[in-house]
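Journal club prep — side note

Before the paper discussion, L.F. wants everyone to see what a predicted structure for a comparable chain looks like in token form. Sequence:
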Amino acid sequence: AMKTKSTFQTARTFTTSTILLAVTALALLASSGSRAAESCTVATDWMVPSGDWFVGSNWSSGNVPDSFTSAQVNNGGTATIGPTPDAESCDLTLGATATQSGRVVVNNGSLAIHFDAAVGQSGTGALTIKNGGTVTAIQAAIATVQTNPSSNGTVSVDGGSFTLSGGIYLGGDVGGPGGTGLLSVTNSGSVAAASVYAWKSGT
């Protein structure tokens, strides 16, 4: 049976100095039901250990992601946005499979994700938003899928903002529980979403 640690049906904004939500869920979720993959016509993979999001040669397609491109960072690398604004992608995946990991840092820049973000889908993912950086999306799942070892996702909002028109799912997805998810908000950062679901272990 599904349990939610907290559910907010109306829009909430989190602006406290520190919010730490750590959740571990114990069920297998085969895939994310929220994915709008059919709307993302192109996929591109991050290819370098670390570098600038806006350098086309850092991506497998040779082009910087746009609103039709599914951006994936799964090679253990870090893609950095900022201070240049106006990065975008159709969706974002960090750590797609159990053995993969990836990180995006938005440092005084901006990233518009036109559909959803999976931070630690089956592997390990991290999204850091700091120094006035902004990220927008329809929804986000942090630590989406329970694997072996379990998925692990972290979103850190450090003096930036993370805004979602839909929901945030911690330690799972809209379809069920996943791995271990952490959301932290510090230094007057803010997180705004229509709803927040925090899964926890147990039945």
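L.F.'s comment for the group: Residues 1-12, 14-37 have pLDDT under 50 and may be disordered. Keep this in mind when we get to the figures.
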